[in-house]
Design brief:
The protein is mainly α and 75 residues long. The protein is built from 5 helices and no strands.
Length: 75
């Protein structure tokens, strides 16, 4: 999407929580919850309802395509 090859490097939840930046612990817990309980989370997300409430809502892919020129990589 941005003209760069990306390699996914998984990070354990614990390793994320100890990165030391503000909110690392909270985000690490949040990521772990989403990983361990995906059905509980995803069952509460209704994309059709979201589009009804926010008609301008974009998927990540649509957002990146629409804002490609504004995204800088490695700067």
């Amino acid at each position: 999407m941005v003209g760069e090859t990306v390699k996914y490097e998984p990070l354990l939840h614990h390793d994320f929580r100890v990165l030391g930046f503000p909110a690392a612990v909270e985000l690490g817990k949040w990521f772990q919850y989403y990983t361990e309980f995906p059905d509980h989370i995803l069952s509460r997300r209704d994309a059709a309802l979201t589009r009804e409430i926010v008609p301008t809502w974009l998927t990540l892919e649509d957002f990146l395509a629409a804002h490609r020129e504004e995204i800088t990589v490695g700067q």
